[in-house]
Amino acid sequence: MNIKEEEEIKREFQLERVILFSDAVFAIIITIMVLEIKLPEGLRHAGSEKIREAFLELIPKLLGYITAFFFVGMFWAKHLKLFSYLKDYTTTLIVYNLVFLFFISLFPFAVSIMTGTLSPSNAIGLMVYFIVIGLSMLSQTLLAGYLVRHAHEICYYPAEIEKNLQWKAQRVNYVSLPILFAYLSACLYYGVKPELY
Amino acid sequence: MNIKEEEEIKREFQLERVILFSDAVFAIIITIMVLEIKLPEGLRHAGSEKIREAFLELIPKLLGYITAFFFVGMFWAKHLKLFSYLKDYTTTLIVYNLVFLFFISLFPFAVSIMTGTLSPSNAIGLMVYFIVIGLSMLSQTLLAGYLVRHAHEICYYPAEIEKNLQWKAQRVNYVSLPILFAYLSACLYYGVKPELY
Amino acid sequence: MNIKEEEEIKREFQLERVILFSDAVFAIIITIMVLEIKLPEGLRHAGSEKIREAFLELIPKLLGYITAFFFVGMFWAKHLKLFSYLKDYTTTLIVYNLVFLFFISLFPFAVSIMTGTLSPSNAIGLMVYFIVIGLSMLSQTLLAGYLVRHAHEICYYPAEIEKNLQWKAQRVNYVSLPILFAYLSACLYYGVKPELY
Amino acid sequence: MNIKEEEEIKREFQLERVILFSDAVFAIIITIMVLEIKLPEGLRHAGSEKIREAFLELIPKLLGYITAFFFVGMFWAKHLKLFSYLKDYTTTLIVYNLVFLFFISLFPFAVSIMTGTLSPSNAIGLMVYFIVIGLSMLSQTLLAGYLVRHAHEICYYPAEIEKNLQWKAQRVNYVSLPILFAYLSACLYYGVKPELY
Fold first, then answer.
1. Chain B nearest-CA residue for C112
2. Weakest mean pLDDT among A97-106, A168-177, B146-155
3. Which domain holds residue C92?
4. Minimum Cα–Cα distance from D40: chain C residue
5. Is A29 in Cβ contact with D28 (below 8 Å)?
6. Which of A100, A171, C169, C175 has the maximal Cβ count within 10 Å?
7. CA nearest to C69 within chain D
8. Is D108 in contact with C28 (Cβ distance < 8 A)?
9. 3-class state of residue D155 by DSSP
């Protein structure tokens, strides 16, 4: 193995570290949410009726977990696809990636807020959940945009990545972001007067 | 290194990401269950008698953890074996894998339900536990079935994988699934009238 | 790349999966213990005196965490050394490894028991902690023993591994195990009559 | 593949294990802190006013999490950079690394202390947080210093690492450490009399 090959392998391993670190964060986020779904203590000697009620209380938590599992799974699958184009990394990429992982890491918080407060008269938890989804999408778009802009330095096949990602990145910027901002404004507006719900 | 080799290495690394992500989920699931087994707070100044009682209360949790550790370990060992045949992945495979990991991720929930409610007059927690085991097996069988059907595209030695897995996949479909459905029906039937227990 | 090389790489990757899965379990165990060390809720509006008391209550937990962090770290470093000899794995090795990881995974439980119940009149938590350390050592010795016995099939340099590990494995079997059994018997004996303490 | 190449690959994999284990610890630490941020139980049937108050209570926890996420992320990025120089490891390096990871693992504890006790009249939690940051920096400097001192044995391009790290390591030793010690002394001094705040 000559020096140049060795350096290339080393650089690839550094990129793998960034990727596997992201995967570990995804894996932890996707699984620790399950810790939220549990029965209250002290049911061992309770009657069947009380246990059934406790189960019914779990259903929204279980549904919240299912949706969050598949959202985070979907974000992970997109991250897998996105990073498959990379051959190198930059410090800026790591910062974008950490910001993206930060918003992903808010999922357990958002799900617990949503399932803990959701009721016909109170949608604030649902708002928080959608805001976290929106910010995760936004930061993933920024990450994709960074890749497109620096495709010639850090990606295999820069031409292909532009074809595959640029339209998507722009579509998101021009379509989703206005929707997100409209949505956030609406949230804030109604969040101030939740008695309207 | 020529382009074709580089692409092959990249594709292999993508598959490794899918696999190591699954491993991380398995590792988290298999270990966070242990967080359930703990003594109540404030025992430092309690008498020996009270501490002994608190220990006795832990025994079902410990037993539940032991069984779940080895069930999840067994599922992981099968996943290790199954994915050793793969040389490539598809989006559908990722979806099957995520569904499988989703059911595995319900283990901490199922164990905590089981050990928190099990009593001679109440087997609903045990049912939930068996349902989670059943659904994990079912989704693993679906994953194996997908591999067998697409062995020519994504596996090394398609002939071998058919020989090793097809019979098993079919056996599970024709034998285990009817048993599982019978079991689930029985669960639902008795779950509606738990006072029969 | 010819078929034989490809197979070898695949087999090596399978072994890496086993190892990285073990590492993930170690990493989770070593870090989730820190979740135990926290102040009770609702101290924000408490007086300085009460906060200082709450801090003093944390000291045994912090000490317990420090010892456990370095015990688990030491077990991980030995696992790193042990598995550096391997070139292949068997199903039996996976079982031994899972059993070892199971006992390692009891550390958070043992530490929380120890720091939650330790007092001059009650050493039962300390016993549980030492039992978990003892069983982890024992299962690691069994793993090392398995490697020594099957060095010719699954290890690089079988001669070297015998030289480096055999004596250690035997020393442990002939020295530590009798001590462990004596210790366990003593624990059980005094455990039955903790009022002697 | 000849014996020498095989050995080199094996040694590299051992180093990768050390690195990926560290990454897993970082990933767990950076994400489990989010479990702290949750609303109290039983808000589903509470009024909007009470829910809003519970949200306001979360703001310091959320801010604490944000700062800690980016501190741990920054430590991870430095670890990524630092270990990119390595081609081999020693037992001493593993010990330095474990000590560093130990202080990183105190972040969830420190953040929970800070956000749980911070008030205009009580800065003890903030002190604990800064002490943990200081000790993490100190142990990372020790790790960097070890690399610089042993660059000829365990690093690629020893000349480069000296140029890049030595000054930083010394700057930290001669500038940050005195500040840290002054700070710690001040903390202890005021910690003894927190009524001065």
1. B38
2. A168-177
3. 3-196
4. C41
5. no
6. A100
7. D102
8. no
9. strand
Q: Tens digit of pLDDT for each residue in C154-173?
A: 887 777 777 776 666 666 65
Q: How many CB atoms lie within 10 A of CB B73?
A: 20
Crossing angle (nearest 10°) for helices B3-32 and B107-117: 10
Q: Enter the tokens of residue D142.
A: 């020790």
Low-confidence stretches of chain D (pLDDT beneath 70)? 1-3, 42-45, 165-178, 180-181, 183-197
Check if the beta carbon of residue D114 is closer than 8 Å to that of residue D129: yes
* B30 vs C contacts (CB less than 8 Å): 25, 101, 105
The yes-or-no verdict on residue B72 having pLDDT over 50 is yes
Q: Which amino acid is at A197?
A: Y
Q: Into how many domains does chain D fold?
A: 1
The minimal CB distance from D14 to the residues C27, C28, C80 is found for C80
Model confidence over D64-110: pLDDT tens digits?
899 999 999 999 999 998 898 888 889 999 999 999 999 999 999 99
- A134 CA: distance to closest CA in chain B (Å): 22
**Partners of residue A155 on adjacent β-strands:** A86
Query: Which chain C residue lies closest to B36 (C-alpha atoms)?
Result: C109
CA distance A180 to A182: 5
Query: Does an H or E element contain A21, and which?
Result: helix A3-32
Q: Tens digit of pLDDT for each residue in A50-94?
A: 777 888 888 888 898 999 999 999 999 999 988 988 888 899 999
Q: What is the pLDDT of residues A119-172, one digit of tens each?
A: 777 777 888 888 899 899 889 988 988 888 888 888 877 777 777 776 666 666
Tokens matching residue B27 = 């590792």
| Nearest Cα to Cα of residue A128 among A112, A146, A105 | A112
- The H or E element spanning position D1 is none
ipTM reported for the complex, 2 dp: 0.86
Question: And the tokens for B38?
Answer: 């703990």
List Cβ neighbours of D33 (8 Å cut-off, separation of 6 or more).
D65, D68, D69, D107, D108, D111, D112
3-state secondary structure (DSSP) of residue D44: coil
What is the residue whose two structure tokens read 């072994």? C15
pLDDT at site A195:
44
Mean local confidence (pLDDT), B153-182: 70
- Kind and range of the H or E run holding B194: none
Q: Which residue has the higher pLDDT, B57 or A119?
A: B57
Which chain A residues are within 8 Å of D104, Cβ to Cβ?
Answer: none
The encoded tokens of residue C118 equal: 């330790």
Mind telling me how many Å the CA of A82 is from chain B's nearest CA? Answer: 11
| DSSP type of residue B155 | B
Cα A17-C66-D13 angle, rounded to 5 deg: 25
Whether residue B116 and residue A76 make contact (CB cut-off 8 A), yes or no, is no
| Residues 6 or more apart whose Cβ sits within 8 Å of residue D129 | D110, D111, D113, D114
Closest Cα partner for A133 from A72, A73, A60? A72
The three-point CA angle A49-A52-A57 to 5° equals 130
Choose among A39, A32, A40: nearest CA to A65: A32
Which carries the bigger pLDDT value, residue C191 or residue C78?
A: C78
- Kindly determine whether residue C21 and residue B16, on different chains, have CB atoms separated by under 8 Å: no
Residue C34 has its nearest CB partner, among D13, D18, D106, at D106
Tokens standing for residue D124: 């003890």
Is the predicted pLDDT of residue B51 greater than 80, yes or no?
no
